[in-house]
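Appendix B. Raw example, untouched.
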Amino acid sequence: MSDASQNRGGGDGRRFDMPGDDIVQPFQIEDLGIRGRLVRLGPLVDEVLKRHDYPEPVSRLLGEALALTVMLGSALKFEGRFILQTQSKGPISMLVADYESHGDGTGKVRGYAHMDSDAVNEAIAAGNASSAELMGEGHMALTIDQGGDMDRYQGIVALDPEGLTHSAHEYFESSEQVATRIRIAAGPLYSRDAEGRSEKHWRAGAIMIQHVAREGGLTGYREGDDDSPYTEEEESWNRASILLDTVEDHELLDPALEPQRLLFRLFHEDGVRAFQTSGVEFGCRCSRERMSSVLRSFGAEEIDSMVLDDVITTKCEFCSSVYVFTADELKEGLEE
């Protein structure tokens, strides 16, 4: 455990792959009774989004979904999966971010967006590219899969027109009953290579604070007609929430601003403590064997109908890896 004012060194504002990238930073604000996590994604989110090459507003939304998923999934204390999925009526009909927990705070994440490309491009050209306009009405499902014979847990909330952050707030208020405040950002940063050519690097970040009242109940949420004096815990929660709301997008994305320095900037007056960071990396579970198994499950007749130019080509939605098969190799051993 270390004081958040400690500088870990290695800062170089011209670099986009920093020691503080692709990590989860747990922390605690001791004087306020608050716990939290800060996520900083660099090369990981850059690889995911460049593999898909979506239009910028779509990449931004998926980047936010990846950061939120890492922040929530990294809290799992067992080997399992945390899945964020939106379904909606807009040009982006689905966002999926899938975090695989190793049970020790580390994990792997992947994600993709399902969209109507023509409708997305038309919306962008018309200047209608906000999250509400691209996603439309729908819902967000957060699923915890413990694997094996264990039951899945799923919470579902309506998509908020203000974006994924507000939807996540609603989830914690209605499903988890834990006072929670979140900030998320994703976006491209630009640099120049040795020959002066512009390069785009995607980044994403998120920060969350949570507080459970010592005597039970939910701190930070009140009925509209409750005018009783704030308790000490409520005052502490309000202070922490106000401080968190001062975080700007560039602070969550800046590769030169180390996570501990940001925490110190926000909460140094209240005794913030930063704990050991854990790492996260891009990882997809697809393979040629898995794709073959899926295709073979359709049967010989369906396999023949999939042939185009003498081969069957399939692409993983999560990582865009392409697999090419012949009908004969897929039908080998199958009954006609």
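End of appendix B.
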